[in-house]
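Minutes, project huddle
Topic: does the predicted pose make sense with adenosine-5'-diphosphate bound?
PN asked that the exact inputs be recorded in the minutes so nobody has to dig through chat later. Recorded below.
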Amino acid sequence: MHSEPIQQAPELPPGTRIQPADCETHGSYEQKVFALLGKELKSGCPECGRIRAEEEAERQMIQSAALARYHMAEKLGAALIPKRFAGKTFDGYIAKTAEQQKALKTCVRYAAEFKQIAAAGRCLLLLGKPGTGKTHLSVAIANEIMATSSATAVYRTIGAVLQAIRATYDHTSDQSESQILSSLVSPSLLILDEIGVSKEKPSDFELTTLFSIINGRYEELRPTVIVSNLDAKALASAIGERCADRLREGGVIVQPFEWESQRGKEGF
Ligand SMILES: Nc1ncnc2c1ncn2[C@@H]1O[C@H](COP(=O)(O)OP(=O)(O)O)[C@@H](O)[C@H]1O
Ligand SMILES: [Mg+2]
Ligand SMILES: [Zn+2]
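Predicted holo structure (tokens), as shared on screen:
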């Protein structure tokens, strides 16, 4: 392509000139020619450049959406929410009585104010009768904070935690005890379900493990949601005063569930 310099632009660096050029798609445009290290660099068609930038932005948007989906899947996977409860949400909780409405409101607020809750390390106790929706609402909190923030949440029954740690002793696990404990201490929120479910007195092993988890989170100022069929007094004595003290720190929220079971209302 042969073209003569048509003008000398004063705002351009010395040695730069502008010449007419032609794009196959967009027709004529003003091409800048820079002298750099003894070579000439020619600017391309501005319309082609604009389209390329748009395509690049679009590609990056798709990539970051895919990345966000991947991180969400990873969070949900690590949360280990049981299949039966994975889809439980606040919307799916039917609150007919004033007590149910209060329980729902407590949990909705806990999730909505999770930033402040986390900063203060405020724990939440969901306590009461079986079948009243404690696990449902605890999982709804986890799902909500993971969907609306970068927070991570993990759900475990105490039974599953103890079993996982026991498995490290007889080498049937590829994880160490400290790896298991740190996976319970590091998430923004831990939900520990079925505390005090067995009628027997907890063993020293159970109490030590529970204290390691709750104290580990307490030291990192990370809140824990405890779900139990015991009332507040029975819970404190079952988990021990040392544990109970850690839970109270930062202003624990206690939510009772004292109505009849909503599980299979027809009965069998
Ligand atoms: N108020 C409610 N609205 C909708 N579903 C409920 C309600 N209460 C309980 N359920 C459902 O009943 C079942 C038992 O509830 P769950 O959360 O396991 O009770 P808990 O943990 O208190 O024993 C779950 O499937 C749960 O989704
Ligand atoms: Mg439950
Ligand atoms: Zn072009």
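Observations noted during the meeting:
- The beta strands are 17-23, 27-36, 39-42, 124-128, 153-157, 189-195, 224-228, 253-257.
- The radius of gyration is 30 Å.
No decisions taken; revisit at the next huddle.
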